[in-house]
Amino acid sequence: SYPLDVESIREDFPILDRKVGGDANAPGEGPDDDVPLVYLDNAATSQTPKRVVESLVDYYYGYNANVHRGIHHLSQEASVAYEEAHDRVAEFVGASGGREEIVFTKNTTEAENLVANSWGLEALGPGDSVVLTEMEHHASLVTWQQTAKKTGAEVRYIPVDDDGRLDMDRAAELIDDSTEMVSAVHVSNTLGTVNPVAELADLAHEQDAFVFVDAAQSVPNRPVDVEAIDADFFAFSAHKMCGPTGVGALYGKRHLLEEMEPHLYGGGHVRKVTFEDATWEELPWKFEAGTPNIADGIAFAEAIDYLDEIGMERVRRHEELLAEYAYDRLAEFDDIEIYGPPAGADRGGLVSFNLDGVHSHDLSTILSERGVAVRAGDHCTQPLHDKLGVPASTRASFYLYNTREEIDALVEGVDEARELFA
Ligand code: PMP
């Protein structure tokens, strides 16, 4: 049977009923809003189901207060909900240490920066290497590049082959006794490649190096288990998984987080402060200085409940079927180049491509006129696009509420662009 009841899932997302068109500067207004929205930009951000929005409303209407266990009722309620949200995130990714291994950050980017600053600036120096992949998102690539510049460490890149996969033989050579950190994207946001991160973790650990997994495109779309991967650090963002913007999570092995210094200083994360020095709160609060993003953190847990009830294996399967369908339909045309592993491979739910002779910005403008929202550009993987030999690509990315008919609308829009630019 088909993995998901998409029709009923779509009812959870009011935005999917809206129409678009007309003046893009006046959203939701005017008679020109005339075509149904076809939202295929989920790798950039996902839409938000009612119950997640309602959890934000419940918080602000019902128990809005600062956390850190104030004495009064509301603060107690907010503290408990916020702390339990960390446990819920931990459980979802298989972190048996619970909240102590989950730091709430602003997003994946902040999680990368937290580790690069707290761990990297201390641990790295001349003669050390950080090994990345050529398909890293800028969140990881730029962060480790700059940390390496500051510390004198070297950055090495595991090459991507013509099929969009990592050259694991080269990986085994590049990860050597100089290596202190391997940072790899789990599912590529451009190629859709699912990387063998458990294997990379083994290679790293054989050299006493750590592994940081950028899970921004895996946690939203498939079941994951940080302990099965044996990741040392693992990061993702709520806004790509039915949650709100402004909150994400860093998983770190407890003993590593314990050894690291905070990356931010201030109130709320300290135990004892004197005019000379300070000591830190227990994990994870040590890394959450200042008033945290309470409402969104609580809504993050609600998003996880939502996804969990549907079932991540079914979400994965649904996306896989959509991605296969999109790949096959686009691959019918000789003038379309699709990037990443071939159809049928274990692929994330997205397809990036170019139409011969049409810039992705023009293509996406034509698609937008038909209500089809895709991403055009370099998807924060400029060096990878350089390697592909193109400045940009068009990316259609799918989620649990997308349908085959929406992919048909995409293909029709591409047909129109081909005729217009012929
Ligand atoms: N890594 C990958 C693979 C991503 O797709 C993204 C989001 N485009 C990020 C990192 C950064 O996520 P955020 O913008 O939420 O920090």
From TrEMBL:
Q: Which reaction does it catalyse?
A: (sulfur carrier)-H + L-cysteine = (sulfur carrier)-SH + L-alanine
Q: To which species is this protein native? A: Halobium palmae
Domain Aminotransferase class V: where? 38-410
Identify the keywords attached in UniProt to this record, alphabetized.
Answer: Aminotransferase, Pyridoxal phosphate, Transferase
**The protein, known as:** cysteine desulfurase
Q: Which family does it belong to?
A: Belongs to the class-V pyridoxal-phosphate-dependent aminotransferase family. Csd subfamily.
Q: What does the record give as cofactor? A: pyridoxal 5'-phosphate
Identify the SUPFAM superfamilies for this entry.
Answer: PLP-dependent transferases
The protein's matches in Pfam families, at most eight in alphabetical order, are given as:
Aminotran_5
- List the InterPro entries: Aminotrans_V_dom (IPR000192), Cys_dSase_SufS (IPR010970), Cysteine_dSase (IPR016454), PyrdxlP-dep_Trfase (IPR015424), PyrdxlP-dep_Trfase_major (IPR015421), PyrdxlP-dep_Trfase_small (IPR015422)
Q: PANTHER family, from UniProt?
A: CYSTEINE DESULFURASE (PTHR43586), CYSTEINE DESULFURASE 1, CHLOROPLASTIC (PTHR43586:SF8)
- Asked if the Swiss-Prot or TrEMBL record annotates the protein with the keyword S-adenosyl-L-methionine, the reply is no
A GO MF annotation of the entry reads: transaminase activity
Enzyme Commission number(s) from the entry: 2.8.1.7
